[in-house]
Specification:
The chain is mostly helical and 139 residues long. The chain folds into two domains: 67 residues, no CATH class; 50 residues, no CATH class. Helix content is 53%, strand content 0%. The longest helix has 19 residues. The termini are far apart. 13% of the residues are buried.
Length: 139
């Protein structure tokens, strides 16, 4: 009879420990340190579920998520690269060399972008857009 009671006790302790931690801090540790922004409704819902089961740990989860900033959605990040630098990625036939473009973006932005990912959606530009950047259209 002792084994089932230990098993139940262990499950209760594990449930309480998971409720003492904040959902946003666990699921999105990269969001910590934000001080404002839009609140993530998924994290709010998960913290609210914690309040339904255990009031005090659920409130602690809300407090921890707000204090660390993990409850906020990440802000939009933008980056710009000089068009003249991007000219180096265009081959003589007018096609973009993905390897060169990836190297330029990695050196300029400090991030490695998967340009050879099959899910990548490529859009064709217009002649006006090319002229705006001082590029000649080539077919």
């Amino acid at each position: 009879m002792r084994i089932p009671s230990r098993l139940i006790g262990g499950a209760v302790v594990a449930a309480l420990l998971t409720q003492l931690t904040a959902c946003g801090t666990l699921f999105f540790p990269d969001r910590r340190g934000q001080i404002e922004g839009k609140v993530d409704p998924v994290i709010v819902a998960l913290d609210a579920i914690g309040i339904l089961f255990y009031v005090i740990p659920g409130l602690i989860a809300f407090g921890v998520d707000f204090a660390t900033g993990a409850i906020y959605l990440p802000g939009g990040k933008t980056a710009q690269v000089d068009p003249h630098t991007l000219n180096k990625a265009i081959a003589a036939d007018g096609k973009v060399d993905k390897v060169r473009l990836q190297a330029i973006l990695e050196s300029e932005l400090g991030q490695r972008l998967p340009l050879n990912d099959p899910r990548l959606i490529q859009h064709k530009g217009s002649v006006e857009q090319l002229a705006m950047y001082g590029l000649k259209p080539a077919a």
